[in-house]
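Most newcomers find our protein records easier to grasp once they have seen one. There is nothing in a record beyond a sequence line and a structure line. Getting from the letters to the tokens is the skill we practise here. An example says more than a description, so a record of this kind follows:
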Amino acid sequence: MRKCVGCQEMKNKKEMIRVIKTPENEFLLDATGKKNGRGAYVCPSEACLKLAIKNKGLERSFKQAIPEEVYKALEKEMEAFETR
């Protein structure tokens, strides 16, 4: 079980999207859940992403500012996740 950085609900990690920070300090979306790096989870819903942005959930998880591209990539990933 993992906690969403947006809605703060506990869910199975397979139901969520993982965002990782690699040792090279780049942020990636990890669909497999197996890549190396520090991870944070967000529900695959637009509402949770907006909450995560508003309450700076990803920033708190990684203890640093998150580039805008990461949020844009998350939005695209969520669109793909919802069509599965």
